[in-house]
Please model this.
Amino acid sequence: MTEATIFELSSPGRQGAYFPEPDVPTAPIEAAITRDTLPLPEVSEIDVVRHFTRLSQLNHGVDTGFYPLGSCTMKYNPKINEETCRLPGFTKIHPLQPVETVQGAIGLMYELQEWLKAISGFDAVSLQPAAGAHGELSGVLIIRAYHRARGNHKRVKMLIPDSAHGTNPASSTMSKLEIVELPSDERGNINLDALKTECDETLAGIMITNPNTLGLFDENIKAASDLVHEAGGLVYGDGANLNAIMGIIRPSELGIDVMHFNLHKTFSTPHGGGGPGSGPVGVSADLASFLPAPIAAIIEEGEEYTPPLYGLIDPDNSIGRVKAFHGHFGVIVRAFTYIMMLGGNGLRRASEHAVLNANYLLARLRDTYHVPYDRICMHEFVAEGKWEDVPDIHALDIAKRLMDFGFHPPTNYFPLIVSEALMIEPTETESKETLDAFVDALIQIAAEARENPELLHAAPHITPIRRLDELKAVRDLVLSCGFSDDYGD
Amino acid sequence: MFLPHTDADRDDMLQTIGVDNFEDLFRSIPSDRLFPKLDLPDGITEMEALAELQHISDANETTDELISFLGAGAYNHYSPAAVDSILRRGEFYTAYTPYQPEISQGTLQTIFEYQSMIVGLTGMDVSNASHYDGATAVAEAVNMAHQNFRGRRNKVVLSPGLNPQYRETVSTYIQESDIQLRGEDIPLTGNPNNLIPLIDKETALVVVQYPDFYGRIHDFSKLVEAAHKVKSLVAVHVNPLALGLLKPPGDFGADIVTGEGQTLGLPLAFGGPYLGIFATRKKYVRKMAGRIAGETVDGKGQRGYVLTLSTREQHIRRERASSNICTNQGLVLLAATIYMSLLGKNGLRQVAELNYHKAHYAAEKITAIPGFELVYDTPFFNEFTVRCPRPAAEINKHLLADDIIVGYDLGQIDGSMNDQILIAVTEMNSRPEIEYFAQALSEESYD
Model:
C-alpha cells in the first residue's frame, strides 16, 4: 500500500486555499525582483485532506498502538494538552509584544521554571533550548563558560561513559571539548577506577545519564560525582531518563550540577514524528548566571490584590541566546498542563508505574531473552536480540517481526555496549493487558526463530510496505520529487 | 492520572517481579533522600486544568484584540483550517522520529514532499528535514561552511541586515570555536556591496538576509560574485512566503538557503515552535547536518522512503558528527507542507502579492503624514522601516492605549535608531485597520 506524492496528484488550475482580492490599490512590482515559476503542486482541498489522511494511516503512533521505544518515553499524550496549547490567548500572541500584554504567557513560563526546579532540586532553569540535544549543547557551553570565568582555560576534557547517547559526544565536540570514553563495570555502573585515572587539572566534567541507557540506576553516581567535584570538574546530567525518578530522587541530590529536561519525553508532550521537542536546562546556584537567555522573571513583586509583573531577563554571564525568541512556547504550555494535572503525587505515581511496568516485562521475558545486566531496572531495560542456537537471527529480525503483531519495536542496536540490543521502555501509561500481549508476542517470536526462521527474516509481512532497500537510498540519493542526480561523491 | 492499573494489576505485577511494594523497586538508589515531597500544587482534573489555563491565557492580549503591525521575524498570517485539522491526527503527532520505515511511511513521505517543496521554493538542489528555527538554521550554515573548509577558513561575514537575534544565536554556537564574525560595524545604510571588502581567502561564509531584517530587498549578485571569486560560500536567509513572489536565491548563486518557516501557516505562539529551513547545493549534501528522507523500494518493488545518509549523524558518528541535532521540527514541517500544498503554485503567489500591496498601501499612508518617512528607498516586501518625528517608544506607548501595536521599536537594538519603527503588514491587516492606524499615527505628527 503506497500513496502517490502530492506532486503526482497535481493538476494545472487546481487550488486548495484562496485569499481575498486586495482591498487596497495595488502597487507596481518590479519584474527584476520577481520569480518566473513556482514549482509547487496544484491540488484541491479535498485532495490535500485525503492525501495527508492516507499518509497518516501509514504511521504507527502511540494513539494506534504500544510503542516501547527505549530511551524515548513514548507515553500517552493527553488530548487536553492539544486543547490548552491552542487557546487563542496562547497561539495569537507575538513574541515581541510589550510585556504588559503577555503577562499570562510569561507568568506561565515562570511557573514552569519553578516547577522544574522543584522536581529536579536545581536552583535555576531556562526554557530556551528547543530539544534535548539543544539543551545538552547549552549545558556543555555553561560548563565551559563556568571554568573560563574562573580563569581555568585548561579544563577541556569531558568524560563520557560508553553507554551514553550519541548526542553527548557530539554536543561536547560542538563545544570544542576533548572526549574521553569511560568503560562501564560489570554491573553496568560507571567504572570508578577508570574515572579516578582521568581526574586531573584538565577535567572539565563528566556527562552522566542516570538512570543510564541500560535502564539501571548507576549505583556509583554519588561516588563518581564526588570524585569529579574534588578534581574541580562539573557533572552534566542527561535528563532523557527523568521519567524513572520524578518524586523518587531529585537529580541535584546525586551531585549533578547541570541537566536538561526533555519535555517531550517526561512531561507528555507529543514527539510529533520527530519534533518539536523542548529541552529546558536546569543548574545549581553557581551556574545560574550562565543560563541561556532569556529567562522568565518577576520584575516587580505583586501585592495582595495585584499580581507580580513578569518579564524576560538575560542572566548576567549568559552563554547567550541559543535560538530566536523564548523557547518552544507551544510545547511549554502542554508540559505545564500535564504537571498541573498530576501534581507532585501524580508525578511520583507516574515514575513508580513506569518502573513497575518495566520490571514486569523484565520478569516475564528474562527466561526467553538474555538480559546481560540483570537486576531490578528502572523505567527500561536492555535485552539481547539473539540466541546462540540460531545465530542467523538478529535483533533487527525480532524488531521487524514485532510489527506484524501491531507493536512498534523497541530501540535496537543501542546502547552500543550490549550486542544486538533491544532496549524496551513501556512507560507508565500502558495496561497489564498490553504488556502481557507484548510478552506473548516476544515469546512466540522466540519460538518462531527456531521453527521458522524465514518468517523473521522476511518480516514484516502485514505492514503497508516491506523492508526497504536502504543501500539503494544512499546509492541513488533521490531526495526530492522529480529530481534525481548524482549528488557528488 | 493517565494510569490504567487496577489494584489487582499492581499486586499481580509486584508479585511477578518478586517484590513486596514500590519502595523495593528503588533500593538500588543509594540515598537517604528518597521520595522527597515535591513543592508543587496538588493535582487537578482535566476540567479544572482547562479552566485554569483559560484564565491564564485570558491575561494575554491577542492579535484578535489588538491591531498589530509587529513583525521583526514572526508574522501574523492566515492558516487554512485544513492545516490544523490534519495536524491533530494522532498517527502524525504521537509518532516518534521515523526510525522504523515500514510503519512510518506517513512521516517519511511528508518529509520527502516537504524537501521537494523547499527545493522548488528556494531554487536549491537539496533540503534537509528542518532545524529548530531560522536562527539555528543560520548557525548550522556557519558550522557547515566552517567544516567544508576543514577549519582552514575561520572568517564568517554576517550582514548587518541579519536579524540581530540570529547574530546572537550564531555567536552562542561558535563561542568555543576559532570562527571570527565580521560585518557588525558595516553601516546599515549602505547596500550589500559594502560587505565585499571584508571577503577574502580566509572567509568561509557570507550570510545575508532576503528580505533583510529592516524589510529591504537587495540585489546580491555582485556580492555573490565577489564571494565566489575567492571560493567563499554564500548563505541567504529567507522569508519563504516572500519567495512566493521574489526571485529564488538559487537564481543568484546562493550556496545555502536558510529560512524561518513560521510564515508558512504556523501560529505566532509567542515565538515557537517555528521551523528552520535549510537547503543547499548537491555538492554539499553530505556536509549538511540534520535528517534527510530519501526514496527507495521495498522487497516487493514498491516505492518507499527512509531516513538516509545517516552516517553523517550523531547516533552513528558520535564525537565525529558535524552537529548534535536529532529531534527537529517534524510536526511543524508537516504543517508547512500542508500549507504549501493547499495554496500551491498560485495561492502562494497570491498571498505574497497581497502582503506586498497592503504593505505598500500602508507605507504610502504613513509617509503622507508630516514627520514620517521611509528610512530606505530599497524595494520591500511586507515590512519597512519608518523614521518618526519623536521616539518610537513614545509612539508605541501612546498607540498601545488605543490597542494598536505600531511595530518593532528599533531603538531596542541600537539607541541611535530610537526614532525608527519596523512595520509589518500582512494579509490579516484590512484596509480600514491600515487607515485607522495611519490616522492614529497622524496624531503623533505634532507636539
User: Anything to note?
Assistant: The radius of gyration of chain A is 25 Å. Chain A has 14 helices and twelve strands. The mean pLDDT of chain A is 95. The CA atoms of residues 111 and 336 of chain A lie 8 Å apart.
